[in-house]
């Protein structure tokens, strides 16, 4: 949900501080979350082929 809220905040964000906060969330929270998802998904896919 936090990702959606960030997206909604950034859609019309013209304040530099909001952009900096959202960029930090993307780099430090969202990208690692997607990387973890990818790793787990690929492991599940690999195990389902056995």
Can you walk through the features of this model?
With 50 residues, the protein is an all-alpha fold. The protein has one domain (2-48). 86% of the residues lie in helices and 0% in strands. It has two helices and no strands. The model has no long low-confidence stretch (mean pLDDT 89).
List the helices and strands and how they pair.
Layout: H1 2-11, H2 16-48
In short:
By secondary structure, the chain is mainly α. Helices cover 86% and strands 0% of the residues.
Q: What attributes does this structure have?
A:
50 residues, 2 helices
Domains (count): 1
Overall average residue pLDDT: 89
Largest sheet: none
Given as residue ranges, the uncertain stretches (5+ residues, pLDDT < 50) are none
**What structural class is derived from the secondary structure elements?**
mainly alpha
Order of H and E elements? HH
**Terminal CA distance:** 34 Å
């Amino acid at each position: 949900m936090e990702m959606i809220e960030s997206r909604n905040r950034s859609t019309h964000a013209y304040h530099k501080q909001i952009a900096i906060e959202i960029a930090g969330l993307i780099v430090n929270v969202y990208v690692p979350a997607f990387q973890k998802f990818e790793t787990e998904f690929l492991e599940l896919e690999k195990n389902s082929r056995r």
